[in-house]
Design goal:
The complex is a heterodimer of chains A (168) and B (265). Chain A has 7 helices and no strands. Chain A has 168 residues and is an all-alpha fold. Chain A has 2 domains: 1-77, Rna Polymerase Sigma Factor, Chain: A (Orthogonal Bundle); 104-168, Arc Repressor Mutant, subunit A (Orthogonal Bundle), CATH 1.10.10. By secondary structure, chain B is α+β, with helices and mostly antiparallel strands. In chain B, 30% of the residues lie in helices and 19% in strands. Chain B is built from 5 helices and 9 strands; from the N terminus they run αααααβββββββββ. Chain B has helices spanning 10-21, 39-54, 61-78, 106-127, 134-144; strands at 150-153, 155-156, 166-172, 177-183, 194-201, 210-215, 224-227, 237-245, 260-263. In chain B, the strands form 2 sheets. A 5-stranded antiparallel sheet of chain B has the order 2-9-8-5-6, with no helix packed on it. A 4-stranded antiparallel sheet of chain B has the order 1-3-4-7, with helices on one face. In chain B, helix 3 (61-78) packs antiparallel against helix 4 (106-127). The longest helix of chain B is centred in the middle third of the chain and has 22 residues, at 106-127. Classes of the chains: A mainly alpha (168), B alpha+beta (265). At the A-B interface, helix 1, helix 2, helix 3, helix 4 and helix 5 of A face helix 1, helix 2, helix 3 and helix 4 of B.
């Protein structure tokens, strides 16, 4: 439990700060996420994903759910930081976590700027296609195809398990 | 050709995948759980992981303590006692199946949490009488650290709260500690609004200053000294700013009300 907080507390907190409007919301979300982690610990399978990915998955899902419930736009704390080439991890980020994220960061660098930005808005900030289109000023069809293309490329890079053709 | 190149009808299905990932699918119920079997969820989680690392903020110590205590109270009631296939992230749980990590078990978790509560109680009981007041600690910092300590006077803005306000900031980057001193800053009703400190750091994007903590000004008047509690390490401060925010503070300030500034010259 203590080790989990030490290893992944910052990961969950950073995601909560990104997606919550206020600090007290972020604190509440972090508490909710860790309770979910304790509950779901038994479903973790190290053969499918790393611990960090599992934790990020629970956190992302919880935060998206909170966003839906509140029907509010999240405060885009890091939105502009994520434009362009992904930056180096800030000082203070545990080395192991930075290493685990390196693969995803590397994958993101292989996408076009729009693809990367739109995917982050969609899966990190819970924005719909229409919201991404409105925010970016690009046509809905263009947004959809860029997200689609980017995610497919990311999956090839990050999750290269044998698949049938088409969408899983 | 990519093995994920889509077939007829895939675009529509893919749009539903994205809608689900972003929480906008029709009829979607609160997901709650993490579906490790879903490759798109895994990809989305990795994107989130990269985003978290890029904007990394350490878990505040006060929140960490709260989580540890709450977890100790909750874990026993919520964790299944057997079954399942996984080893457990970052902490050990009762063994869940053959061939996987064999952990130390729930009693250890509860014992550790109980010990934590006991230690916290002991610290509170024994440390408070010996803890210097913020004013005394500030004086000690000013006296002991020589030229290394920054001492910056507040500059008032045209915000009404700053009309009669003065004071200074004392900060030691080496010691990562400091104090705000105010005179004439209006008392706040903490149910309505609170003051919040922001620290601009040369090594951080100035759009995202470091949260230095929220604080209240009591109605008694006189000098008020407030410890600085930065959320992360301050490397090279360039400016300290006080804003007025909703109770509990905010993650990103609109800076609509910013009564006081102290710049490092």
């Amino acid at each position: 439990m203590e080790a989990c907080l030490d290893r992944y507390g910052g990961l969950v907190w950073s995601l909560a700060l990104r997606m919550c409007r206020a600090r007290d919301d972020a604190e509440e979300a972090t508490q909710e996420i860790f309770l979910e982690i304790w509950r779901q610990a038994g479903r973790f399978d190290e053969e499918i994903a790393t611990e960090a990915t599992f934790i990020a998955m629970i956190a992302r899902r919880r935060l998206i759910d909170r966003h839906r419930r509140s029907q509010r736009q999240p405060t885009m704390v890091c939105e502009d930081q994520l434009d362009g080439t992904p930056a180096e991890p800030p000082v203070g980020c545990p080395v192991e976590l930075a290493e685990e994220a390196a693969r995803a960061r590397e994958g993101l660098t292989r996408l076009g700027d729009d693809e990367r930005r739109f995917i982050e808005w969609s899966v990190c900030d819970g924005m719909s296609h229409a919201e991404v289109a409105s925010r970016s000023g690009q046509p809905l069809g263009t947004v959809k195809s860029k997200i689609r293309r980017g995610l497919i490329r990311l999956r090839e890079l990050l999750d290269p398990q044998p698949q049938q053709g088409g969408v899983a | 050709m990519s093995r994920f190149d889509h077939q007829d009808g895939d675009e529509e299905r893919f749009d539903r995948v994205v809608a689900t990932l972003s929480g906008h699918a029709e009829g979607q119920s609160a997901a709650g759980g993490a579906n490790l079997q879903d490759p798109w969820e895994r990809v989305a989680a990795e994107v989130a992981l990269a985003a978290a690392v890029e904007g990394y903020q350490p878990l505040p110590e006060s929140l960490r303590t709260k989580l540890a205590i709450e977890a100790a109270a909750t874990v026993g009631a919520t964790l299944p006692s057997s079954g399942g296939a996984g080893s457990s992230p970052g902490f050990d749980l009762p063994d869940r199946g053959p061939g996987r990590a064999s952990p130390i078990g729930l009693p250890w978790i509860l014992a550790a949490a109980s010990l934590l509560v006991a230690v916290l109680g002991w610290m509170q009981a024994w440390s408070l009488p010996f803890e210097p007041s913020p004013a005394a600690a500030r004086a000690r910092l000013v006296a002991g650290e020589g030229d290394e300590v920054l001492r910056l006077p507040w500059t008032a803005t045209d915000d009404p709260a700053a009309a009669a306000a003065s004071g200074d900031v004392v900060w030691s980057t080496k010691g990562q500690q400091g104090y705000l001193r105010f005179r004439g800053l209006p008392a706040n009703d903490s149910r309505v609004e609170q003051y919040q400190l922001w620290i601009f750091d040369a090594r951080q994007d100035e759009r995202y200053p470091i949260d230095g903590g929220v604080f209240d000004i009591p109605p008694e008047g006189g000098d008020v000294v407030v410890p600085i509690r930065p959320a992360i390490r301050v490397a090279q401060p360039t400016m300290f700013a006080v804003t007025i925010e909703k109770p509990g503070g905010v993650v990103v300030s609109s800076r609509e009300r910013l009564p006081l500034l102290a710049k490092v010259e």
